[in-house]
Design goal:
The protein has 328 residues and is α/β, with parallel strands linked by helices. It folds into two domains: 238 residues, Aldolase class I (TIM Barrel, Alpha-Beta Barrel), CATH 3.20.20; 72 residues. It is built from 14 helices and eleven strands. A hairpin with a 2-residue loop joins strand 1 and strand 2. Helix 11 runs antiparallel to helix 12. The radius of gyration is 20 Å and the shape is globular.
Length: 328
């Protein structure tokens, strides 16, 4: 699968862009363990244009994480075009347009998935962003606004005609938010449309190696994007990659020690990159969400302690206690 001049290999796995999740430390670990491409947290076009420091800091790229995409969202042509030009100066490998974020503060203002209620403007933004930059432009969107407006089949053709070089489809409507099950049948319908010649990346409910393989085998997508299953689990890409490549018999599974070492490394990367307090804030959500701790009795209290920790030594001590409990 290729986007622009970059070949992402056969059946590539992508890390979804997620607010307050896909910081550079986490992205580098996901890349190390098999993600073909990672994305920064999505950033608001208006904030980019206004040079808001917190927003610009989210666009910091480390060469070790490439290829990397920066995803932008907005509600008008002018700010989106200007933001894309600014983003291009950071030299991402892809500029992705977010037409899929369902959260109220974004969609209710007409951005993200809110753009699905204004298709002419959505297409106008896409067309003009593609024209404004030399970097490959891609789009991430949903099936439609609700079940009465499942427009993705037609919309995919229209977006392709605008000049995008790949399309990621989350198999839910905006009305579903993150509830219910993702509908991959419509994603497959888009992929199997003979008019579609750009890569189609599927997204939604990919939480295991088996589900990733099923997405490729049954729906024929070119790539699979993984979101919430990566929380506190950057090694999920290793597990999926080995399963897809039929290498599970030869693979060496990561031990509990390995996984806790990875989480501790993520903490150290973020603290060194920012500072102790904010580095901890960036990391503790991952730690509290990690599936490896489910075997700890009454983990709820430990989870609360993780989320309240403000010092590296304090958080490291909690992780070491978890290590001992999991090995008992």
């Amino acid at each position: 699968m290729k986007i622009g001049n970059i070949d992402y290999g056969n059946r590539p796995l992508f890390l979804a862009p997620m607010e307050d999740v896909t910081d550079v430390g986490f992205r580098m670990l996901c890349k190390r363990y098999g993600a073909a491409m990672v994305y920064t947290e999505f950033v608001a076009a208006e904030a980019i244009v206004r040079s808001i420091k917190a927003t610009l800091s989210k666009m910091t790229i480390n060469d070790d994480e490439r290829p990397v995409g920066i995803q932008i969202y907005g509600r008008d042509v002018e700010s989106m075009v200007e933001a894309a030009k600014i983003v291009e100066q950071v030299h991402p490998d892809v500029i992705d347009i977010n037409f899929g974020c369902p959260v109220k503060k974004v969609a209710s203002k007409g951005a993200g998935a809110g753009m699905l209620k204004n298709i002419p403007l959505l297409l106008d933004i896409t067309r003009n962003v593609v024209k404004a930059v030399n970097t490959p432009v891609t789009v991430k969107t949903r099936l439609g606004w609700d079940n009465d407006n499942l427009i993705i089949t037609e919309l995919a053709e229209q977006l392709q005609d605008c000049g995008i070089q790949a399309l990621t489809i989350h198999g839910r409507t905006r009305s579903q938010m993150y509830t219910g099950e993702a509908d991959w049948t419509l994603i497959g319908k888009v992929k199997n449309n003979p008019r579609i010649n750009i890569p189609i990346i599927g997204n939604g409910d990919i939480t295991s190696p088996e589900e990733a393989k099923r997405a490729f085998d049954e729906y024929g997508v070119d790539g699979v994007m993984v979101g919430r299953a990566t929380f506190g689990s950057p090694w999920v890409f290793k597990e999926m990659r080995e399963y897809l490549d039929n290498k599970t018999d030869d693979a060496t599974p990561l031990s509990i020690d390995d996984k806790i070492d990875i989480l501790e490394e993520q903490l150290k990367i973020n603290v060194e990159r920012i500072d102790e307090y904010r580095g901890i804030i960036h990391t503790r959500r991952h730690l509290a969400s990690s599936p490896i701790f489910k075997g700890i009795p009454d983990f709820r209290q430990t989870r609360i302690a993780m989320l309240r920790a403000t010092k590296v030594d304090e958080l490291m001590a909690i992780l070491e206690d978890c290590r001992k409990l999991l090995k008992e």
